[in-house]
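User: I'm curious whether this sequence folds into something compact or stays loose and floppy. Could you predict its structure so I can see for myself?
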Amino acid sequence: MEKLKLVPYPKSVEILDGSLDCKKINLIGEPCFACDYFKDFAQNNSLTLSDGGVKIEYCIDGDLAIDEEGYILEINQDTIVIKANSQKGLNYAFCTLSHLVFNYNGVLPQCKIQDEPYLKYRGMLLDNGRYFFPVEEVLKYVDFCFFNKLNVLHWHLTEDQGWRIEIDKYPLLTQKGSKRSHTNFGIKPHGGFYTKEQIRQVIAYANERGVEVIPEIDLPGHAQAALACYPYLGCFDRKLPVATHWGVKHDPLCVGKESTYEWVFDVLSEVMELFGGNTKYIHIGGDEVFRHRWSICENCQATIKKYGLKDEEELQAHFMRRVCEFVVEKGFIPMAWNGVNVDKTVHEKVVWQFWSDERGGSDRLVKSLAHQSGGYLNSNSKCAYVDFPYGRTSLKQSYGFVPLPSDVQPDKLVGAELDLWTEYIPNFNKACRYLLPRTPALAEAMWRDGEKDYPDFERRLLPTLEFFKAQGFKSASLKCANPSKLRGKCQSAWFNRRVLHWQGLHNLIDDANVTRKYAKKRK
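Assistant: Here's the prediction. I'll summarize afterward.
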């Protein structure tokens, strides 16, 4: 028997004989977001709310032996019954019901569904550091998470190219740091930031839909926008612009001055106050830090000597450890990217988000750190980076995503996350074509553990993409998402032209100038 037309597919499904026409419905239960959502959905999809319609009876039963986000959905001969033990489970039950109504044109197969997620943390990263998206569009991404049963929006709010979060104590961060003179491609000014009130709006909207919002303040690298505002945060008080082009910049925060730590702790304090009550995590970045400046900085070298550190790599570990300790003292759990090269010496509670396995011995490193730290969050770029062209990461590759690597203890797997970086994605419509159809594939891997069956997934995906289109999210075609070898190579070649926008030569020239101007003459 064919599976239901659903993505992600439920944990347990029993398909019965018969169907139920629910073009007219009668919702019976306590008022809540899930009910209001389904009422709006029904009205937008030609369903009629009527006392004489099919009864949809729903309730929250705290004694139900099911996961907090799980639910039971029964479509019977003349009624629909929904049970969950929390509002989150009720939300997902109505999300599933809306997909079924749309995919079956209101005539539903009778079935019994008992569902709950495989992973507790199922995330999507939205990078607004490179490109600012208006609040209205951020709310659409929250809806997108909800429709895919993703429960975390990882909000990347600071970058070399822009500082997007209002900080009261340091107003220049948004007054100046949120604007760049031009972009990689448009060659025109770009800017924008979120006020604290707007961020509260996003958090409230997300929490109503069962989505946790985790902020990322990228430290100590990816910080040129901050350095442009407050030059004393750098090693040499250089006057730098907000970065225009993407790529790794060579001026990190100076980690040898107490004034830098004071600034970091001030910023994080305001961030934690704003996001507290919504999330227990604070992401502090940590990867792609170029250490040339530290190697010739008197303050950084003095710190290395003071604490008996071996080199600049251990200096970064020292910085990360102090920041993690501060975050933990405030009652939060720090998160950071792998690629720091100082991972296991940082903090026992830090959750490592793994995006790259390009370093030698990475499998060993992953297993080691997952067991020694606060956990492992899987964002393997080979499957979960949805900003890559389909020639580099096809839909089939994303569908093959396995969140738990071999030999990593299951209790150390915090969850998984798909990542939308925006160096090449300056607007909402383009983002949709990269997110879809890969997101449903990745969402299913996070929601349901088990064997893969791509042909069956594609059959279930087609009506699901029509559902998303009706909600305002237009997908790339399946032909585009699984390109031929030739087309894939062309896409990759086009994408690799990014090296022309990296400003790598500029970095090398700037390194030479900084060395000549600031490095002490050695005996």
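Summary: The chain has a mean pLDDT of 93. The first helix runs from residue 33 to 44.
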